[in-house]
Request: fold
Amino acid sequence: MSSKQMLAKIAELNKQLKKSITIMEVCGGHTNTVMRYGIRDELPENINLVSGPGCPVCVTAQEDVDNVVELALQGIPIATYGDMLRVPGTKMSLDDARSQGADVTIIYSADEMLKPENKKRVFFAVGFETTTPMTAFLLSKGITVYSAHKIMIPPMKALLDDPKIKIDGFILPGHVSTVAGEELWKNLGVPGVISGFGEEQILHGVCLLTELIIINEKKIINDYKEVVFKEGNTKAKELVEKTMKLCDASWRGVGVIPQSGLEPKENKLNAKIKYKEILKNVKSKEYKECICGDILKGIKKPTDCKLFGKACTPENPKGACMVSEEGSCQIEWRYRK
Amino acid sequence: MNIKLSEGSGGREMNSLVRDFRKILKVTGEWKHTDNDAAIVKINDDEYVCMTSDSFVVDPIFFPGGNIGDLAFCGTVNDLLVMGCYPKGLSLSFVIEEGFPKKDLDKILESIQAWSKKTTIPIVTGDTKVMEKGKLDKIIINTTAVGICTKEEIIDREVERGDKIILSGGLGEHAVALLSKRFDYETSIKSDSAPLVEELTMVKKQIKQAKDPTRGGLAATLNEFASKYNAIIEIDETSIPIKKEVKSVTKLLGLDPYVLACEGRFVCTVGKDKADDVLKELKVFNKDAAIIGEVKEIKSKKPEVLLLTKIGKRILHEPSGNIVPRIC
Reply:
């Protein structure tokens, strides 16, 4: 079916809906396609598509950024993924720390950490199930890690319990599912469709979800079977299991969600423990006008923020959602009208 | 304030930095087009001198389809060629890191020599500096090209409503070749790096504006056209030539092919009655050449580039941020 035909089918299904529904696309990659093709505008008024907390850069708490900035300023060499450099901290970003002489390097792929010049660096690691195995691999090679890794289910459950938003179904992240497997979502409590990232795949996901919502069936459909299998990538999961353990984690604008993060099992490879003396005096304060927290929860849209496009742009971001290519605010800005 | 990486990426930040330069460097004399890739000055009743300068800091320096030497030669001559001027000669300066392999330097020089011979554009002067190990990343090349042309040859004609936009070949191939090398992907894509001598010589009298979409890619180039003429440009996504493999790699890396650099392509505007002829001529050099859109309006209060997608229409903005560092 072409995109236009699928939109027509969604319009047909819409007639059977008794009330308006809210579907959340969890992953920033999905949000990008949704915005790139203007899918939100093309859907019937009753079908709301909202963005969720699936951008790893965006959900990284201010205190984690502040901690790594402090390590860098204290002379500890850092390596991290490019986007993390520009996430604003309380006093400065890692990029600012770098222009003050701190040794912070960008890596594009985790294996670059194994180069002799990088081995001594602390790896500031972020990401969900998709990228955790790479960090687990580095831990197995003895690299020290500052982990801001998170897992996907706890915030989604927290959102389902949040009285400020009612979610009727999820477009589930394809890449997370590739690693974690279909089974990750089995006790979600609302319908979900695992989707690929093309515009047709997302529209198909919306179609399937609307059908499930109409018949009130809370099942999970794998609509990305080319790469997502029931059990996921078992080798990757084993590696994570072996080197990392669950911990409480702080989410930007949301606060601590119990057992929603992952940290190194070995204390000597855990930068938070290894450098706790340096980190104990770091004070963090979130920029109070930034509404990244509510945006990550799908409660507010980027355009609801008074900083959006004015004080906060990709060149000069005030909140993390404006930094990352997968952040709702940057995506909204990129495809602004 | 210190300089950030994004200020060299060919997007909004870089344009703003260059505007800051121009606030300090105010003397432009008789030269025109000093905010363009190449500037021109009238030297007598018929002739103009055209001049450009460029620096190359690519990583990796060897990649599928070329090396930093190819880029230096092609990138520089293309900046003159898109103005309609055939380069008379090139300067070539190297800043080299101590310890750089001589055989790699020879390879780079041989690539430059091969183009120089093929295009008969000589390398006429240059400079060499060597810096201590660790003070720079392998090698930097700086170039200048100068040429003489007549007024008729200069590609700078009034754009009108209805003019067609033509792209001379597939998008994103240089960037994808380079990124594939960086990430160790196996691909058959090669850098498109090449001097645009023959194709531009062929069509230069028929086209109105031309620009090579290097840093910032097609998105930056079209926005530049739009703002120069306060134009509304509409591009049809389905007509933009992008190789399947380029699409796959950009998808894999989460990159937008519209902002990726090409090193052997140009975008031009052509009067609608001449568009089919120009396209036919360009297809001889590259079968992927295509009419990708048209100028919908000029002197608009809201100049912009609109992209027709499979579902609807959206604005193609000037890129910003670190697009992909150091690929040209």
About this structure: Chain B has two domains: 31-153, 164-315. Helices of chain B lie at 12-24, 68-81, 102-119, 173-183, 197-203, 217-228, 244-253, 275-285. The mean pLDDT of chain B is 92. The interface with chain A takes residues 2-6, 12-13, 182-183, 251, 254, 309-315, 317, 320-322, 325 of chain B (CB under 8 Å).
